[in-house]
């Protein structure tokens, strides 16, 4: 399962969330099947987002959408600081070690 992994600096988590959360249907329509948002414990000005897709093509298309429609326009990406680092990952190993 391909994952679009995004790591970027933010100025304010509440402002970032207010922009991110209303786009849930946009993400779903683009093929996102699972989303996971994390923040480093020692850095409240950084956010890490993993968006899972069924296909690499969907992940690549959504990355293009983010680059041209969201991140390129400050009004569409409030709280974003600088340019996000984004990469499409493919799972090599996945294991639940609790079992």
Largest sheet: 4 strands, antiparallel
Regions with little confidence, pLDDT below 50 for 5+ residues: none
Spatial strand sequence of the major β-sheet: 2-3-1-4
Number of strands: 4
Tell me the Rg in angstroms.
14 Å
Cα-to-Cα separation, first versus last residue: 22 Å
The CATH class is: Alpha Beta
Architecture per CATH nomenclature, i.e. the level-2 architecture: 2-Layer Sandwich
Pattern of helices and strands: EHHEEHE
Overall form? globular
Q: Approximately how much beta-strand content do the residues carry?
A: 35-45%
According to CATH, what is the topology? Answer: Alpha-Beta Plaits
Number of domains: 1
- Work out the helicity level: 25-40%
Task: Kindly describe this structure.
- The protein is of the alpha+beta class.
- It has a single domain, classed as Alpha-Beta Plaits, CATH 3.30.70.
- Helices cover 29% and strands 35% of the residues.
- The chain contains 3 helices and 4 strands; from the N terminus they run βααββαβ.
- The protein has helices spanning 13-20, 24-29, 56-70; strands at residues 2-10, 32-38, 46-53, 80-90.
- It has a 4-stranded antiparallel beta sheet.
- The protein is globular and about 40 Å long.
- The relative contact order is 0.30.
């Amino acid at each position: 399962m391909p994952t679009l992994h995004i790591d970027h600096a933010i100025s304010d988590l509440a402002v970032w969330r207010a922009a991110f959360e209303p786009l849930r249907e946009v993400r779903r329509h683009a093929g996102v099947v699972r989303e996971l948002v994390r923040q480093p414990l020692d850095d409240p000005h950084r956010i890490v987002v993993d968006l899972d897709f069924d296909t690499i093509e969907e992940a690549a298309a959504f990355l293009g959408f983010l680059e041209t429609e969201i991140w390129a326009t400050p009004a569409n990406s409030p709280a974003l600081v600088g340019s996000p680092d984004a990469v499409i990952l493919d799972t090599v190993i996945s294991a639940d070690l609790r079992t």
